[in-house]
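Sample intake — Acetyltransferase (GNAT) family protein
Collected from: Geodermatophilus obscurus
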Amino acid sequence: MAELDGAVVGYVKLRRPTDLPSHRHVRQVNGLAVDPAFQRRGVGRALLLAAIDEARRRGAHRLTLQVLGTNPGALALYTGCGFEVEGVRRGEFLLDGEYVDDVLMAVHLGE
Ligand SMILES: CC(C)(COP(=O)(O)OP(=O)(O)OC[C@H]1O[C@@H](n2cnc3c(N)ncnc32)[C@H](O)[C@@H]1OP(=O)(O)O)[C@@H](O)C(=O)NCCC(=O)NCCS
């Protein structure tokens, strides 16, 4: 969580994608959000960099996430922190009558 003057202004969630032993080297960002009143001040980047450090500390070699193709701000944030696009599920979600891509991204954390 990110706090400012004792108030929560953002959070990031990190989890294992599955419980499979063969999947133990991977962690997933499973939620990242910053209060709209505190966006564009570096909070999202700080949370994401903390999640990368924590995933590495837990022994992960890969950190993955999914982001909607209609979210250019998040895509820019992830790319700026080293994530690369590994795949796109075209039209995966139907949102407000429009089919939206699900973009699969990952960063390699080293062995
Ligand atoms: C995406 C989100 C977490 C970014 O948080 P933030 O605190 O505003 O991000 P930062 O201030 O750390 O921005 C870091 C960089 O990300 C990019 N970025 C962030 N928001 C952006 C936007 N709205 N438009 C374009 N680029 C953006 C920029 O490159 C920015 O660097 P800069 O400010 O030096 O240009 C925030 O907008 C949010 O909570 N959005 C709603 C929830 C969401 O979409 N979560 C991600 C789901 S996958």
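Post-analysis note: The chain is about 20% helix and 45% strand.
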